[in-house]
Amino acid sequence: MSGRAGLRPRRIIPAIMVLLAAAVATGPARSASPAAEAPAAGGFRVPPPARTILKNGLTLLVLERHAVPLVEIELLIKAGSAADPAGKEGLASLTARMLKRGTRTRPAQQFAQEVEFVGGTLESSATRDATLVQGEFASRDVEVGLNLLADMVQNPAFGEEDLSREKRLVLADLASGLDDPAEVADDAYMAWLLGAHPYGRPVAGYTRSVPGLTRGDVAAYAEARLVPNNAILAIVGDLGAAQAAQRVDKYFGAWKRRALVEAKLPDPAPVRGRKVLLVDKPDATQSQIRFGNLGMRRGDPDYLPALVANTVLGGGFTSWLVDEVRVKRGLTYGIRSRFDALRFAGAFVVSTFSRNASVGETIKVSLDQIRRLRAGQVPAEDLDKARNYRAGQYPLRIEAPDALAAEIVGVELYGLEPDYINQYQKRVRGVGLDAVKRVAARYVPLDDLAIVVIGPASQLKESLAPLGPVTVRPIDAATGPY
Q: How many helices (H) and strands (E) does the chain have?
């Protein structure tokens, strides 16, 4: 979900991966398991997870998958970088990093050794919406994994020496990130679009904010946010639901419930007219380009129609943007559009790069494709292709246990319908041209745009002026605040 989602890398797991047939129960399964439900005709079916709420408010979701002796564990705390206090940007991310640095009962080295001894993994990170702890263990060692995870969130040590080390690492990451124009462009776009809104801040914080974060800040954040009544725990894999509930109660039952201020963010203001941020990178031979406006929250009923519309526009290799900008015009090697839908708001963005001399043409040709979409000029063949692509990719996208765990947690976090996963294909295939035209007019901008370009200002400023007022910033100030 740098300042981007910040989730852990995909892990290498045993060669016998959970295949699609196992993930969606399309073949013979043990009769004792919920996975034995037959798939819907012409589609796939994931049985609903067993849902339990512990006395302390922790929501537990368990989905049995017995094909491979592995268990995926995902704990989501409903607070991320958007909850960082002003002036303490990066606090949620730093707190997440510190969860791996030992507990009051296990020093950092011992903690890491216990995870490695059983061949497991435990990683923690933060996104704009959440703090995540994700782990994977052999089913025979799941009790070890739950014990360690519970210790992480209930007894974090937050040692001063470890805190100083992690802050140095964060600052080094922020400095090295300036060498990646694409990463800078992504964070600068959110800042330029959203301004002072909490979603506009980089998840990792600023070089000016991270040095001032203290152990007291981290401990206070954990005390207020890392509480069971603000958390969802998903378990997917080779473990029965009843066993999982018993073990979770054993290790997490003592986690103390606390009074909680419900997270709520203000609605961000959309950009009116056009405004251009030019981030000066004098040595660049090509420029990174981002433009768009506000999108939608993840729970918006229009999310799936918007996903189909975006697939036509720039959400796949055969999309209009790829065909026109890359294949026919040769203006770039890569272009896409996407909706970054978050819990309380979201953004729409077109992302690409081009030679410096072609920046203006690249933006113009891209906007021509947006104009087509908003006018509803979508051939039936293109709409069918987009619907079939999205419907067909969905089971593959959630087949791995970690992806499936993230999906069921997302359904809970975003307040989606309980049967969202099984209705996904039907609803995507039911998106018609009228719906595509409607969501494009509402969410895919043409005249109101926040535009970010990273390249040599001396070459680009004059050519960008026709698009709107141009603000020039050095690259080390690209992510705001604005």
A: 16, 12
Q: What is the pLDDT of residues 227-257, one digit of tens each?
A: 999 999 999 999 999 999 999 999 999 999 9
* Best CA proximity match to 63, nearest among 18, 125, 100: 18
pLDDT tier, 17 (very low <50, low <70, confident <90, very high otherwise) = very low
Angle between helices 303-313 and 433-443 (to 10 degrees): 90
- d(CA 172, CA 176) in angstroms, rounded, equals 6
Is 428 exposed, middle or buried, given 0-12, 13-18 or 19+ CB atoms closer than 10 A? Answer: buried
- 365's enclosing H/E stretch is helix 359-374
Residue 106 CA to chain centroid, in angstroms?
A: 31
Residue 443: C-alpha distances to residues 4, 296, 317, 387, 481 (Å): 21, 8, 22, 19, 25
SS3 202: coil
pLDDT at 44: 85
Kindly indicate the confidence band of residue 43, based on its pLDDT and cuts at 50, 70 and 90: low
Question: Taking each helix axis from N to C terminus, what angle separates 303-313 and 359-374, rounded to the nearest 10 degrees?
Answer: 130
Render pLDDT for 267-316 as a digit per residue (tens, 0 to 9): 999 999 999 999 999 999 999 999 999 999 999 999 999 999 999 999 98
How far is Cα 201 from Cα 86, in angstroms, rounded to an integer?
Answer: 10
> Nearest CA to 1 among 131, 155, 139, 179?
131
Rounded CA separation 155/330 (Å): 55
Record the tokens describing residue 263, joined without a space. 């997270």
- DSSP reduced 3-state for 279: strand
Residue 153 φ/ψ, nearest 5 degrees: -90, -20
Tell me the pLDDT tens digit for each residue of 351-409: 999 999 999 999 999 999 999 999 999 999 999 999 999 999 999 999 999 999 999 99
263: pLDDT confidence band, cut at 50, 70 and 90? confident
The pTM assigned to this predicted structure is: 0.89
Q: Mapping DSSP to helix (H, G, I), strand (E, B) and coil, where does residue 471 land?
A: strand
Domains of the chain listed by start with CATH number:
20-252 (3.30.830.10), 274-477 (3.30.830.10)
DSSP, residue by residue, 173-194: HHHHHTT-HHHHHHHHHHHHHH
The set of residues, in sequence order, having a beta carbon less than 8 Å from that of 86 and lying 6+ positions away, is none
Judging by DSSP bridges, how do beta strands 335-341 and 286-294 pair with one another?
A: unpaired
